[in-house]
Amino acid sequence: MSSSVANTYNRNPITFESGEGIFLFTESGERYYDLASGIAVNAVGHSNKYLIDKLTEQAKKLWHVSNLYRIPEQELLAERLTNLTFADKVFFCNSGAEAVEVSIKAARKYHFSLGNKNKTRIITFEGAFHGRTLGTISAANNPNHLEGFGIPLEGFDNIPIHNIKLVNETINETTAAILIEPIQGEGGIRTIDTGFLKELRKITEKNNLLLILDEVQCGMGRTGKLFAHEWADIKPDIMAAAKGIGGGFPMGACLMTEKASNGLIPGTHGSTFGGNPLGMAVGNAVLDIIQENNFLEKVNTNSTLFHKNLKIICKNYPEVISNIRGKGLMIGLECNIKNTILSDELFKNKILSVGAGENVLRLLPPLTISEKEILEITNIISKCCENIKNKK
Ligand SMILES: *Cc1c(COP(=O)(O)O)cnc(C)c1O
Asked: Does the pTM of the predicted model rise above 0.90?
């Protein structure tokens, strides 16, 4: 494709002109079910009227002032997020990678400010994805993402998941924190056992380490709780959020307990755009919707139906789909064929999906997906599996 855009993506050559709810439309009016949601971003669907109104209202008043001044919309969203979670403090930024970066910096600075200057190392896990900055690729340690970019950033101990003994063996006097996604997204919708998360919480408490969760993909209602760690009934010290939190407006946030945020005094970290009035107006609007009565309840009942129907498909077409992974509307289809064969077939039948590690295909619909849409979609997926089976 001849384009002046940098060549970093393998793009599907299709273009979309508009969207509405779960649907995307091409210029010629072809309609697609969007089960990619811009990679778990369009949490409340495309062209959400309430979001448009709130964005437009703010756009007419004030877009940006920088963090040299107080920003009431930012203070409001921070207060709401802290009221709803373990956190006492929120730092706003513009993306998931930035939210993870400040999480790492906060953890190191916390120990530094207590005089523990050597406590800088962070334990991370194989299969993780934390973003594409030098810090976050070093944390995740995926060789495909590191290759050619020089010496990885020092200070990460990357180990396999679900091995508590190894976690204990890896901890030493230089360890500052443990960083983990409660459900690995890019890695292949690998759900971390709640028992393992609980153990990590215990170990970090025992060893005076901070527990950092990366909920950039699994947070903001995606699993049927506001944040996925609530299923494990644990509280982290620091958490990175992004993707769904802006409903399509680029936004990230690092949530921290008072204690964990102690090192981040004025001048230690910053962002020009983070938390600007325009972004915050949208962030508050997304939260208005997710906090509505029954919103998360509906995510839970609808996703239960979705999983149930997908399990039936899996049973009928084991040669195509061998297992269903994930929680809520963060769904992984474990493929018995190459996952691109299934995504291509779904695409031909006007369903958008996203690939992931371990030959998994991700379904990440807007959280506003309806029962009717789930039934339509699972019918199409079933038909796609039949087509693939017949071609085999
Ligand atoms: C997408 C993602 C990131 C990175 O977010 P960006 O906005 O692309 O920087 C970090 N962590 C997880 C778990 C993600 O899914």
From this structure: yes
